[in-house]
Fold this sequence. Notes:
By secondary structure, chain A is an alpha/beta fold. Chain A is built from 10 helices and 10 strands.
Amino acid sequence: MLEIKNLRVQYGAFAALQDVSLSINDGQVVSIVGANGAGKTTLINTISGLLRPVSGQISFDGKDLLQMEGHNIASMGIAQVPEGRKLFSDMTVYENLLMGSYSKHARPQRQKQLEMVYELFPILKARDKQLARTLSGGEQQMLAIGRAVMMCPRLMMFDEPSLGLAPKIVQSIFEVILRLKAAGLTIMLVEQNVRQSLQISDYAYVLETGRVVIQGSGQEVLANEHTRAAYLGI
Amino acid sequence: MVFSPELLLQALITGVLLGGIFALISVGLSLIWGVMRIVNFAHGEFLMIAMYIAYYLVVKGGWDPYLTILITAPALFLIGILIFQTTIRPILKDPSMNQIMLTVGLSLIMQNLALVFFKADVLTANTTYTRLNFMLGPVVVRGSQLIAFAGSALTAFLLYWFLQKTETGRAIRAASLNRDAATLVGINVRNTYLLAFGIGSASLGVAASLMIPFYYTSPTVGLFFGLIAYVVVVLGGLGSFPGALVAGLIIGLTESVGASLLPGSLARVLTFGIFIVVLLFKPQGIFGGKQK
Ligand SMILES: Nc1ncnc2c1ncn2[C@@H]1O[C@H](COP(=O)(O)OP(=O)(O)OP(=O)(O)O)[C@@H](O)[C@H]1O
Ligand SMILES: [Mg+2]
């Protein structure tokens, strides 16, 4: 479904991604593991079209994403739950969800997706008239996920969805990810709960200073000596 | 000057009516600032162009002044997006000093072009509405100003409704709140900027047509209204829609009460006095929240 070949992304002269190749198949959960500054957010933002690579290829269902602008990439069904949530802070919960189904392909599904989001996160329904910036951290994260679900995406990329949240909410976010997978979505997951995310992953890539250093099935990467030492503290 | 309650009452009425127009003129500037963080110092000159269009339609074309909205609003929308595409869009990411230089430069060019094409004459259109005045107790209400007030309120309301309730209006707000997030949900941010600039300019077309029965036109008329709009937007809180409305009324009242209490040139001191005090003590404006 998603194919990335020899991707190189720079901020000025600094290369944040070098020669990154990866692929994600339909219906899979794929984890990207890496320390702070490894280039995970850079990778996700490049797929979304917020950043332009210096070289390399990205294709989605055989279509060249590098020929498209960010808003068109989103309309193709590539959603992102961004780092730091990036909600529309002065809009209500309901309006934020409506914005998720702004694009033409998502709008006809609006009502159906809205019901699904409210079912996943009942608290969002209770708070629908509240401004997004007045929500608690956990609620904001749910809204960010809900807004992405409203896009009827085929690929959903999570960038550290559980950062700074209480363990109970972290668990419910993992459950939601599994339910989305069961509903047929393809998922790319960046999580600092490395063990748990590898456990639910079909495939995983380990990024270090902008390069893929290890890859394999979730179980393989979980068993890898280097991963265990560097990311699992064993 | 002798002070009398009638005089004050008259100034209050005129102030409120003028304030409505000030509010409408400011709302466009506020929208443009809110969406793309640019202060368009040529805002007043856009109004000036619209006033010339309305003036010639009325005086040479025999149009009803209020019907000219059908021309001025779309014309200003087009002029707005044309100028935006060719001059402002390329410098959206530049330092604000460059942006200020550019829009100030635009305003000077427009003033001077107006001087060339329309000459320096002060033009007033004498329409049937111009003499439509009536007494309300001891005060004179100018019918054309009352219509302008109502028209401004209606236009501002429609604009507010558009931004709050329509898909496109919401997209404009979303793009102004978070550019990246807007792109991520499929909004073409570039188009929302263009649209916001066009709408902000079109509102000046409406204002110009509403003003033509009671206000003169000249190449420098935009200077005054541009400054007023700038003061109103800062007072109301940059980018705040309700703030611009209330601040418009406050400045309208200040201008007209000032003019009736203070001798000629001193009157304007009040308006800019308020401006400076707000900048010093509450730079986010009376309605602005915390500075972002
Ligand atoms: N806008 C920017 N300008 C310059 N350098 C940047 C910029 N954004 C990121 N970088 C650098 O690029 C590298 C990769 O950053 P990125 O945000 O992709 O890392 P990350 O893996 O998401 O890290 P984290 O786990 O902390 O979120 C880092 O060294 C970072 O300092
Ligand atoms: Mg990151």
